[in-house]
Amino acid sequence: MVAIQKAICYHKLGRHSASCFTSTYTYMRFYGLVEVFLSQIPNFSELWWLSIVAAVMSFSYSFIGIGLGIGKATEGGHSRGTIGGSIFMEGQIFPGGIDNVWTVLQALGNIAFAYSYTALLIEIQDTLKSPPDECKVMKKANLIGISTTTIFYLLCGCIGYAAFGDDSPGNLLTGFGFFEPFWLVGLANAFVTIHLIGAYQVFCQPIFASVEEWAADNYPKNQIIQRNFRISLPILKSVYHANIFKLVWRTSYVFLVTLFAMILPFFNDILGLIGASSFWPLTVYFPIQMYISRSKVQKWRKKWIFLQTLSLFSLVISLSAFVGSFQSVLKDLRTYKPFHENH
């Protein structure tokens, strides 16, 4: 949302170096307010429409970014990349010093975050109806989802690097790699905003459900937790079952997350940190161990060795990404002042 306002400002002034200050915190508070409202959606199964909207938005801004990148890459007079990039240049490994090492490791964390969706698989599978068998549907969905994600990541990464070379911004759209056509850049950023609104709920609803189920099981006689109030919604021709505990718990969660984001607004760094922390245990280790146990794979057989090697390799990647992302957060904290914006 900040990027949209800045893009309009740059276009009006006709100068990309113009001072177009926009408060990030104002939009953070607005975003948090929207999420407080959407968090009152009862459960994961009722998010189907929001998931569809988020998916459409994701494809839309990805295609726009790829198209703008192709256009930029075919132009002359811009920075060219090298085969080695930040890792190998002019016969030297990491010519930019240790900072380049941290940047590469942080990038691994960002990529890992995109594949750390396993916590949602059980929730998604729980909403499926059979026949066909839920496992077969999920295997097919996994294959399509991972393949599509990988293709888009490769396209955005390769085309973005072809367009900007070693000067590629951390975010092709909000980092102002593109300024014109301003309306298309603004539209893409609007799609990003809508996608993030939906993605927030997709990731948070399982957390809401887990805490609420725990509270209901442990406090079966507590009226605040157990009692629902029927609220008629004539416009929607439906009835909403309000619950005091859910209202307070979900609102508090969104408030704390929003406050944390305002205190530490280091998007790429925090993203890498979360991705590195969750990728190996949730996406690699537990699924592999469950498969070994269920299929009764014997130790030291070829399949067992392959799976354990894959798990160990993923662990090394996760640890490296965590170190790189953590170092980036520490670097930002050295110069950052909470709730202070540079004009």
Automatic annotation (TrEMBL):
<feature type="domain" description="Amino acid transporter transmembrane">
    <location>
        <begin position="2"/>
        <end position="328"/>
    </location>
</feature>
<feature type="transmembrane region" description="Helical">
    <location>
        <begin position="304"/>
        <end position="326"/>
    </location>
</feature>
<keyword id="KW-0029">Amino-acid transport</keyword>
<feature type="transmembrane region" description="Helical">
    <location>
        <begin position="143"/>
        <end position="162"/>
    </location>
</feature>
<feature type="transmembrane region" description="Helical">
    <location>
        <begin position="182"/>
        <end position="203"/>
    </location>
</feature>
<feature type="transmembrane region" description="Helical">
    <location>
        <begin position="273"/>
        <end position="292"/>
    </location>
</feature>
<keyword id="KW-1133">Transmembrane helix</keyword>
<keyword id="KW-0813">Transport</keyword>
<keyword id="KW-0472">Membrane</keyword>
<feature type="transmembrane region" description="Helical">
    <location>
        <begin position="47"/>
        <end position="70"/>
    </location>
</feature>
<keyword id="KW-0812">Transmembrane</keyword>
<dbReference type="Pfam" id="PF01490">
    <property type="entry name" value="Aa_trans"/>
</dbReference>
<feature type="transmembrane region" description="Helical">
    <location>
        <begin position="247"/>
        <end position="267"/>
    </location>
</feature>
<dbReference type="InterPro" id="IPR013057">
    <property type="entry name" value="AA_transpt_TM"/>
</dbReference>
<dbReference type="GO" id="GO:0016020">
    <property type="term" value="C:membrane"/>
</dbReference>
<dbReference type="GO" id="GO:0006865">
    <property type="term" value="P:amino acid transport"/>
</dbReference>
<protein>
    <recommendedName>
        <fullName>Amino acid transporter transmembrane domain-containing protein</fullName>
    </recommendedName>
</protein>
